[in-house]
Amino acid sequence: MALRVTLIPGDGIGPELADATRRVLDASGVAFEWEVVDAGEAVMAEYGTPLPDHVLDSVRRNRVALKGPITTPIGEGFRSVNVTLRQALGLYANVRPVRSIKGLETRYDDVDLVIVRENTEDLYAGIEHMVGPDAAESIKIITRAASERIARYAFEYALANGRHTVTAVHKANIMKLSDGLFLESCRTVAAAYDGRIQFEDRIVDNMCMQLVQKPELYDVLVLPNLYGDIVSDLAAGLVGGLGVVPGANIGTDAAVFEPVHGSAPKYAGQNKANPTAMILSGALMLRHLGYPDAAQRVEDATRDVIAEGRATTYDLGGPAGTSQFGDAIIDRLAAGADAALAPATTV
Ligand code: NAD
Q: Taking Cα atoms as reference points, which of 332, 329, 316, 331 lies closest to residue 272?
């Protein structure tokens, strides 16, 4: 039976990436039925909101979505669709595996981090106002419930995926109450995993320096929303940039998979952007849906095409467009399937 999945192509480079990703996932050996729904500025005129109810209903019904990036107007206009979607669906954990890719020239070749970012509160709660004409106030919300929930997610992820250490990242030396509560919550949860998963903490500024200097020392990081947003882009930079890092937003009732990067409007419609992050997000989705073998095939085929370097996009130094990159991955998947079907030869 086909897997019914909501597909939100997004805007900017989103639709091109979504097209390549959908074709790759359709070639993975798993049958999908895509329910395509649009969100963002393009639907504002028709529905009066960038996130119409039928989009949320579709994700609630299918319990899983693959999403392209969506533009958020800066300093004015509607609230981020991405943030609203995460809050409306209770997608409390943002998970970003960051792994070195063979063939991509970067400063390090042994990065293997997982960033677990709290996705619902902190300064992203969207509570801000002007205080008179010349001052603005944004309120940072940290609760024990959300902090313990994300910490438990990080430890459970570590256990399930053979990881050894969870590092909590904070600024509790300055924000003694809010970040202090986050750290205290992580410590409380850590105690229940004592002897199975190690626990340590780092102040966020020091963490950034450590990641730039010795990323191989770190394993699973758990962070409040804002630090998680910033540190995950830093980590993406360690392995080749935003174009190659996938992401997952996990809740108790639904999950939305999306690349880490934004809509890169300047490249929209040019068949230029790198589809890797969205394709690897699709592989994370396959794992989430219980198809680890198909997920592995997609990841291997994508990594092989990158390692070969002949059909990659401009940002990886290659000559290909978005769709040609996707085609090369599909060819690779087909070659793998043919090899698996070929009779064994005896010598
Ligand atoms: P961005 O990630 O869109 O682009 C930054 C730069 O990274 C681009 O100019 C490009 O050089 C490079 N880049 C990003 N993705 C790439 C890809 N797939 N292939 C090749 N190069 C790529 O970040 P931004 O310019 O800060 O944001 C643009 C818009 O995207 C904003 O409106 C922002 O709010 C939105 N955004 C959306 C999401 C999301 O939908 N989850 C995430 C981040 C930003």
A: 316
Closest CA to 164 of 211, 136, 196, 132: 196
* 260: DSSP letter: S
CB neighbour burial string for 48-76, b if at least 16 within 10 angstroms, e if fewer: eebbbeebbebbeebbbbbbbbbbbeeee
Q: Are 116 and 150 in contact (CB under 8 A)?
A: yes
**Distance from CA of residue 23 to its chain's centroid?**
20
Which residue type is seen at 129? H
Q: Provide residues with CB under 6 Å of ligand 1.
A: 13, 69-72, 82, 242-243, 258, 261-264, 266, 273-274, 277, 315
Per-residue pLDDT tens digits for 6-58: 999 999 999 999 999 999 999 999 999 999 999 998 898 899 999 999 999 99
pLDDT tens sequence across 289-317: 999 999 999 999 999 999 999 999 999 99
Cβ neighbour number for residue 170 with a 10 Å cutoff: 26
User: Distance between CA atoms of 326 and 320, rounded to whole angstroms?
Assistant: 10
Q: Which of 70, 225, 263, 306 to mutate to test the pocket of ligand 1 (most atoms within 8 A of CB)?
A: 263
Predicted TM-score (pTM) of the model is: 0.92
Which ligand 1 atom is nearest residue 80's CA?
34
Burial call 291-318: b when 16+ CB within 10 Å, e when fewer = beebbebbbebbbbbbeeeebbbebbeb
Give dist(CA 284, CA 275) in Å, integer.
14
Q: Which residues, other chains included, contact 191 with Cβ-Cβ below 8 Å and sequence gap of 6+?
A: none
Burial class (CB in 10 A: 0-12, 13-18, 19+), 173: exposed
Distance from C-alpha of 115 to C-alpha of 97, rounded to nearest angstrom: 6
Q: Which phi-psi region, left, alpha or beta, contains residue 63 (left: φ > 0; alpha: ψ -120 to 50)?
A: left
Nearest one of 224, 241, 277, 278 to 94, comparing CA atoms: 224
Q: Find the 259 Cα to ligand 1 centroid distance in Å.
A: 10
